[in-house]
C-alpha cells in the first residue's frame, strides 16, 4: 500500500496506526533477512508514536498528510536517543543524538512514523552498500546483484515492499544509483533546499538529502513535506523544451539502457541533443572535492582509530586528507566554471534526460562495469553519469523504467528550484507506461 493510501485510510479511521506500524515491523523482521536493508528496528519508539497518533485521531485533531506512514532513514540521519553510526563502528562510542535530524522532524510533524535505520556504505563513501561492519545489502530483484549505494538500504527497503518511504543522501549519486538499480523513484532536490542539520556529512559542499518511494504520488507528497512547500500546478509537458544530454552521457550505455532512453525521448518528442563541455574533468573534480572534504573531516579519527575503518573507505579518506591544496583549489575553480556551463543550458531547455547508470545491477561476484572497453570496479564507477552532475546544484529525479528483466532508471534534470518540471515530465512518462515501480513480493524470489 502506498504512503498516500495509508495516510488517507488512517485519517478516515479505516486503518489503525498502531496496526500499520506493527505490521511494518513484523514484515521487516520476517523478510529483511533476505536483503539486509535494515540496521535497527525502532520498535518501542514507533509503537509509542503510533499509539499517540491514535489518541490524537480520536480527539479529532489534524494528524497530517502522512498520518501513520512508516518510514526508514539511512543510518546517517540523527534519531533522538540513538547513536548515529553512518554505517561505521568508528562512531559507536559517540553519545546518542539529542534530537532527530531536521528532515526527520518534518516527516514526523506530518504524521509519519520512523520504524528503522537503514544500511549504507561506510560513511556514505561508495556505490555498492557492501559494508564491512553491517554486511551487504542485497538487491531485492536479484539477491546475487549489487543494490547500489551509498543509500542502498533505503532503496532496497522500498523495492522489497518493506517500507513505502525512506530517506537517503546523495553526494555523487547515492540516491540516483540505487534508485535505478532497484527500480524505485528517487529525488535529489535542489542543492540547499532541504536542511542538513543532523545529517552526518561525507562532503559538506556536495551533500543533499532526499526521498525514495514506490510511487510518484508519494515522491511528490514527501518532497512537499520535506521542502515545506507545494510543487504547484504542473506545467504542460508539451510546452516544455526537453533535450537529451549527450556526449559523455551517451557513451558506455548497455543496449537495454540505450533502448530505455530512446523510449523516453521518443515519448517526450525530444529530438535535440546537447552536450556539457569537459565532463570527464567534472567527474574528476567531484572525486577530488569529495575526497578532500571527507578526508579533512575524518583526519582526527583516522589518526586515532584508522584500523576501525573499512580498509576501502580508510584508504580513500587518507588519500583525500593528504590531497595537495593546489589540486583542491583547481577543482573548486573548475566547479564554478562548470556550474555556469550547466546552468546556461537551462536558458535554452527546461528538462534534460540522461541515463542514471550504464546498465543493470552488476553481479556481486563480478562487481565490475565496462567503461570505454575496459572493466573497472563498480563500487567506484557506478556514478559514471551521476557524479558530473552532482556539484552543479540542480534537482534530479530518477524515474524507474518499465522494462522486462532487471531495473533501470533515467535522470530527469532541471534548473534549480524547478522540481515542478521534473514531476510533470515524470508523470507523463508514468501515464504512458514508460516509467513505474515494480515491487518485489516481500517473500523474495522463488528458491531463496
Automatic annotation (TrEMBL):
Residues 25-422 form the Amidase domain. The keyword Plastid does not apply. PANTHER family: GLUTAMYL-TRNA(GLN) AMIDOTRANSFERASE, TRANSAMIDASE. SUPFAM superfamilies: Amidase signature (AS) enzymes (SSF75304). Signal peptide: none annotated. Keywords: Hydrolase. GO terms for molecular function: hydrolase activity. It comes from the Bacteria. This is AtzE family amidohydrolase.
